[in-house]
Amino acid sequence: MGQSSGIGVLDKAVGVLRAAAAEPCGLSELCARTGLPRATAHRLAVGLEVHGLLHRGTDGRWRPGPTLTELAHRGVDPLLEAAAAVLPRLRDITGESVQLYRRDGAARVCIAAAEPASGLRDTVPVGTRLPMTAGSGAKVLAAWADPMTQRALLPEATFTERALLDVRRRGWAQSVAERETGVASVSAPVRDAAGTVVAAVSVSGPVDRIGRRPGVRWAADLLAAADALQHRL
Q1: What is the pLDDT of residue 91?
Q2: Which residue of 38, 69, 95, 124 is surrounded by the most CB atoms within 10 Å?
Q3: Burial code of 99-117, b = ≥16 C-beta within 10 A, e = fewer?
Q4: How far apart, in whole angstroms, are the C-alpha atoms of residue 169 and residue 144?
Q5: Ranges for the IclR-ED domain (predicted)?
Q6: Is residue 72 pLDDT above 80, yes or no?
């Protein structure tokens, strides 16, 4: 496991990080690379995932998480830098409120937003924590979450496992009055350079204005914005 700090749990956690950084790995591979018992390796990997140091993809394998990137950039989040360039343009194209969400455990957090200058808006302040059980942004993040997270969310969710399959198939999600009465939204996944879904970009507004099928109207623009974000990442 390399050098020892004399703090056993820290050394083991660093060993798990190094193992996942070398190549994405499942639990069996993690145990083989670190020499740790399954229960210990799993506990450490899940704990590191909670803090964003590891991320478990839909294939069930752990890989380096977004917090490592943030720390490596000395507190400058490349996703936020990309959002600052892309979200205002999406707002101008749609004329509606635009948000960027990142999953944090069983919640999604608005990490960036762009609001139109006037008119009725769906304002979601940066830092707002919303449940992962309703809304198009939640559907997108849940659709590409690991199976364990999906199983934990679905019993309380307004959507079904079949709905998440449909989201993955078409590449975007929509919702009408799921999170809030009178509000509709459409969202698309944002991927990093490795193709891992790291966020959801959304357009939202009053149902009376954007209609009950917002995906028909805005999905193409959302997908283009998601591609622009990935390109900048």
Answers
A1: 93
A2: 124
A3: bbbbbeeebbbbbbbbbee
A4: 11
A5: 67-233
A6: no
Instruction: Tell whether 1 is covered by a domain.
Output: no
Using the predicted structure, report yes or no on whether residue 195 has a pLDDT greater than 60.
yes
What distance, in Å, lies between the first and last C-alpha atoms of the chain?
A: 31
Q: How many domains does the chain have?
A: 2
Task: Give 13's contacts (C-beta < 8 A, 6+ positions apart).
Answer: 44, 47, 48
Burial 176-186 (b: 16+ CB within 10 A, else e): bebbeeebbbb
- Domain C-terminal end among 21, 55, 72: 72
Residue 117 has pLDDT above 80, yes or no: no
Q: Are 157 and 110 in contact (CB under 8 A)?
A: no
| 46 and 157 part of one domain | no
- Identity of residue 108: R
Task: Look at residues 229, 164, 167 and name the one whose alpha carbon lies nearest to residue 199.
Answer: 229
Alpha-carbon gap, residue 3 to 17, rounded angstroms: 14
pLDDT of the residue at 58: 76
Residue 101 lies in a domain: yes
Closest by Cα among 104, 105, 121 to 182? 121
Tell me the residue type at 132: M
